[in-house]
Amino acid sequence: MSTMIGTETTATVQIQPRGKMIAYWSVTLLLAAAVMMSGIGQLMQYGGNVELVTNLGYPLYIMTILGIWKVLGAIALVVPGFPRLKEWVHAGIFFLMTGAALSHVFANDYGNYGSYIILPLSYAALNIASWAMRPKSRKL
Q1: Widest pairwise Cα distance in the chain
Q2: Residues 86-125: pLDDT tens digits?
Q3: Is the separation of the CB atoms in 100 and 120 below 8 Å?
Q4: Out of 23, 25, 26, 71, which residue is the most buried by the measure of CB atoms under 10 Å away?
Q5: Alpha-carbon gap, residue 14 to 102, rounded angstroms
């Protein structure tokens, strides 16, 4: 007959590997910076934004709407907390970027070497990577 005199309890702590955390923040900060600069450019009607929007047949006020949402989304991506809001931001960026690429396809406006399609799709891919690598604290 054996009796237990003492028990040993070990707690396991889930720590995300440092490399994965660096990769997550690199991708997320790059995405947030790109979305923020794009939003500011649209709000200021800077560069070829006006021509780009009018070539697609959209009214100019769409730039103000999209610019505001992009700036707010970029901020929400990097602010701590609010995991549900971050989920919505990731979904919004995905729909925005794939919608932009499709708008250019439907308008036969491909840009130089398809850049008007490749750029938004690369941002959508960056968005998916950021979403997939997010730490447990940012998941629902």
Answers
A1: 86
A2: 999 999 999 999 999 999 999 998 888 889 999 999 999 9
A3: yes
A4: 71
A5: 41
- DSSP per position, 52-65: HHHHHT--THHHHH
Residue 123 near residue 93, CB atoms below 8 Å: yes
CA–CA dist 25, 128 (Å, integer):
13
Report the first-to-last Cα separation within the chain, whole angstroms.
48
Residue whose entry in the numeric block shows the structure tokens 């990731």: 90
Task: Pick out the chain residues at pLDDT < 50.
Answer: none
So where are the chain's domains? 18-135
The pLDDT score that the predictor gives to residue 110 is: 87
Element (H, E) at 84: helix 83-106
Residue 103: predicted pLDDT: 95
